[in-house]
Write the structure tokens for this entry.
Amino acid sequence: MVTPPEPLARFYSVIPAGGIGSRLWPLSRADAPKFLHDLTGSGSTLLRATWDRLAPISGPDRIMVVTGRAHRAAVEAQLPDLTDPNVVLESEPKDSSAAIGLAAAILVRREPDVIIGSFAADHVISDQRGFRRAVVEAVAAAEAGYIATIGITPTDAAIGFGYIHCGEPLDIADAPRAVSVDSFVEKPDLSTAQSYLADGNYLWNGGMFISRADVLLTQLGETEPQLLAGLEELAEAWDTPRRGAVVDKVWPELKKIAIDYTVAEPAAAAGRLVVIPGDFDWDDVGDFAAIAKLHSGGRKSDLAILGENARVLADASSGVVISQTGRLISLIGVTDIVVVDTPDALLVTTSANAQRVKSVVDALKLSGRSDVL
């Protein structure tokens, strides 16, 4: 019997479990965001799979989940080993800087030399060993004082992901693959993505950050000192009876901004950010085309069907069908179709237009149709 590797010393995993996942409407809603769904057919929700991936690396007692107050019951039901001190509840979404920054500020007070790793609740990674190897190198880089991220080696010219432009190799003990980050690049058009793939010096931005908590907070404070001050005030009261009052006062005033802009990009510009290439399968399941691809293995001839009571008749059709109603769905001669059937909303589109689902959500918001959001 092979003995599993020990959890990493000083390491704490942080899972930000927020966001609605508007490109997965009407499956993903405000009260049931995508990380609470099984989108892979594995029997585990994305959140549960993330926990199972991280537990052997940090230990199950060293995983903190940051989520919305409305999702606490569902999160705790899916993660029975999650301890109460490791549940951080947001009164309203404030994006990743506040979520990850607050976790860092709380944990550094409990354990001053702690190294934290932030891993989104809605990513799909099946290569556990490859993932662990990358995290081990990222932790080594964090021990050397860097902020580290894990970039995914591209397998195609994807336009749905941001990219990292790699710089020069670095000499960091126990992190032989570490390279500097030259810059971050927003989601490109197809021709630009093809040039990145051909260049070979670009990685997909997986949004994973590993750092000593104090180093991350210092970088955040250089960019957004007022935001850091608010997070420090929250963290100081967090493990005291004053928490509720301080959260009600401070949280609504926090700036809503992604950690890419407050930590990652400024750290890269200052030469403090390194990237570890991750040669493992990865997807952030950003839209229904990604779900279809996960289930088809990239083949165009398959139809992925999700839903416990899904009833589908298909002839010469491909794509994905997600059913929550048990209603019979018949497909004849349609390719790369996306059908999402829920009790109060039906979506029909194609894989090529999957990114545009967000515009439907935006239109529903403008029209006041919050009942289906």
